[in-house]
Structures are given as structure tokens and as C-alpha cells.
Design a protein that fits this description.
- The chain has 181 residues and is an alpha+beta fold.
- The chain folds into 2 domains: 19-56; 61-177, Transcriptional coactivator/pterin dehydratase (Gyrase A, domain 2), CATH 3.30.1360.
- 55% of the residues lie in helices and 14% in strands.
- The protein has 7 helices and 4 strands.
- It has helices at 19-31, 36-57, 64-73, 76-82, 86-98, 103-117, 141-159, and strands spanning 121-127, 130-136, 164-168, 171-177.
- Strand 1 (121-127) and strand 2 (130-136) form a beta hairpin.
- Helix 5 packs across helix 7.
- The chain is globular.
- The two termini are 21 Å apart.
Length: 181
């Protein structure tokens, strides 16, 4: 669920940028085998879909290896205490991004979080109101259990549904039916 409707006509916009930035954009576009225009559109799309919201939530970017070491350095109780507010923060972010909380918004946020944060790979299936969210990662069982707590409490609080969640060391499978409105 993108904020950007790619079926609409484009707008031609001239922008002045420093020569060094232009050279960097050209180099990166060439390395990715695409045009500078396509690269700039992807950068602006990320801003529109993610960065402008995360700035309001105070996101901090750290390398995944550092995040994994932080998780592993805490004992189980410390980790539970440190992450106990995560379900309510998750719902606040969904509501802030989509201005509503429903199964489609939770699914869309899960995909967007995966795309831009990169701690998980996310696959969503929806058929006749039955949702399956699959999250794959390499951060270990504590992170899997954290995701389970986030989705179990978040879906229960927001939708009044008890999701079925399976956890492995590096993946989480979430299934639930959306109740008709």
C-alpha cells in the first residue's frame, strides 16, 4: 500500500543541486543500472512513505549487528522490560501512518517497516478477510518473541481478535481473520 499512485501522470520539476551531489547520484544510478530520475524518485518515495514519519517518532538508525548484540547482551527479564511498551508504540505508528487501525493498515505497516527498517523480510497474504503475515529475520528467538508480543497484543487491542502466532528462532507466522464491519 503505497502513498504514491504510480498510475498518475508525472510532473516535471527542475531542481538545482550541487555538482558533487549530481555526480554521486549519477554514480549510484549507474551502479544500480537505472536512471538518475528513477533513483531520485525512489529516494523521494522513501521520504514520503517512511522518513517523514519516523522523524516524528525519533527513530535511531543502527547497524543490524549492533542491534543483535544489544538483544543478546540483555538477560530475558531486562529484554522483556525494555520492550514491554512495543505493542502500544506499534499501534500508535500504524494509526499515525494510516490514520486508522484495521487489518489492511497493520499489514501495510508491516510491509513498510520491513522494507525500510530491514530487520525482517515480510510477506502478506490476504484472502476473504483471512490474513497471514510472515516475518523472517536473523535476530534470534528473543526478537521472534518480541514480534509475537507486538502482534498478539496489538491485534487483540486494535481489532478484538486473538491471532494465531507461531514462532521459530528466526521467523514469526501470524494468522487472523478480520471481523466484518
Amino acid at each position: 500500500m503505497s502513498l504514491i499512485d504510480r498510475t498518475t501522470r508525472t510532473v516535471l520539476r527542475n531542481v538545482r543541486i550541487p555538482k558533487e551531489l549530481n555526480a554521486l547520484l549519477q554514480k549510484d544510478a549507474n551502479a544500480e543500472n537505472r536512471t538518475v530520475s528513477a533513483l531520485v524518485v525512489s529516494i523521494l518515495t522513501k521520504y514520503a512513505e517512511w522518513d517523514r514519519f519516523t522523524q516524528k517518532f525519533g527513530f535511531v538508525a543502527i547497524p543490524r549487528t549492533n542491534y543483535k548484540r544489544m538483544i543478546e547482551a540483555m538477560d530475558e527479564q531486562e529484554y522483556l522490560t525494555a520492550t514491554e511498551k512495543d505493542p502500544s508504540t506499534f499501534l500508535e505508528m500504524v494509526r499515525f501512518w494510516y490514520k486508522r487501525i484495521d487489518a489492511a493498515a497493520i499489514s501495510a505497516f508491516s510491509e513498510r517497516f520491513s522494507k525500510y527498517v530491514g530487520t525482517t523480510q515480510c510477506e502478506i497474504e490476504e484472502k476473504d478477510g483471512k490474513y497471514t503475515i510472515t516475518l523472517q529475520h536473523d535476530l534470534g528467538v528473543r526478537y521472534s518473541n518480541q514480534l509475537k508480543r507486538i502482534y498478539a497484543a496489538g491485534i487483540q487491542a486494535a481489532l478484538g481478535i486473538e491471532p494465531r502466532i507461531e514462532v521459530t528462532g528466526n521467523s514469526v507466522f501470524i494468522k487472523f481473520f478480520e471481523r466484518p464491519a
